[in-house]
Amino acid sequence: MESPPFLAFGTMTATAETTRSAIAAGVRHIDCAELYSDTLTHVGEAIATSGLDRTSFWVTSKVNGLPTGPYDRIKARVQAQCAALGITSFDLLLTHWPGEPDLDFAGDPEQASSKSSATWFTAHIGEAWRNMCRLRDDGYARHIGTSNFYAGHLRALEAEAPSDPPYANQVFIDATHQEASLLAMMRARGILPMAYRPLAFLPVIKMAGEMGDGTSAALEAQALECSAESVQQLVLAWLARKGVVAVCSSSSAEHMQANLRAASLAGAPESLGGDGTDTNEMVAMCGGLDEYAACFRRAFPAEEEA
After folding, report:
1. Residue 131 Cα distances to 36, 61, 90, angstroms
2. What is the DSSP string of 121-165?
3. pLDDT tens-digit map of 116-170
4. Residue 136: inside a domain, yes or no?
5. What is the value of pTM for the model shown?
6. 140: phi then psi, degrees, rounded to nearest 5
7. Domain that includes residue 167, residue range
8. How far apart are CA 301 and CA 73, in angstroms?
9. What are the Cα distances from residue 232, in Å, to 1, 40, 252?
10. Can you give the C-alpha Rg of the chain in angstroms?
11. Which of 7, 27, 159, 179 has the fewest CB neighbours in a 10 Å radius?
């Protein structure tokens, strides 16, 4: 498989049953991570028992934070992931976040700010990217990339490795966080955009609609206009039209099949929602925001995305 399918099944909370269901529905892109250590073994078992060979799947995974320190230790961590999944290499391996590997995602999101400052990042990105390049060159990944990198992060990486940009960058994108400038910056540098949690906050958008916000109604009207089966499919179709790989999950094979159909939606929109949809403050106030992504984004507050 030369390039990733547009829809990836996120395995952070996956079970053996939901992974098997996603594969049966037609999903061929699996998104894993060192952080999701509890799910790796049964995800590997689902791949192994699918009846499909390894080349039928695109497997993306991530290493915790920036992989700083001795290369042999980083390599051992990646080998452990491969062993748990029952594979020998990844199609795409990402740095999971632009900060220290021991960031605690069960704690206060604001801790991400102290563990991923611009000063720390700039001092360590060169070493981390050299380790990533060695992992690729040693055959542990066909492609390497980043996650949660914003404009300042990408510029700092570019300064360290101008001739070796990331293949992809996975960031939080959804209806009210569309990241148009960041996407343009990535496209200009040949970096594949990937979106995590693109559907996670649609219930919050709907709740804000019940409080008088117009975003939910605008999305529902747009879904009807372009014959989408649901607002969820509308969002995924919009991402597919923009060339963004979407990472999402569902326990329902029927929902995953509908998600896969989004790629061929004839009326996929160029723009999503209406005025006031992107950076919607009411949705954010209601909790429709990935707080860790917001902390990573603020690390380089003065950077222009261009």
Report:
1. 21, 15, 15
2. HHHHHHHHHHHHHHHHHTTSEEEEEEES--HHHHHHHHHH-TTS-
3. 999 999 999 999 999 999 999 999 999 999 999 999 999 999 999 999 999 999 9
4. yes
5. 0.96
6. -85, -10
7. 7-200+243-261
8. 33
9. 27, 27, 14
10. 19
11. 159
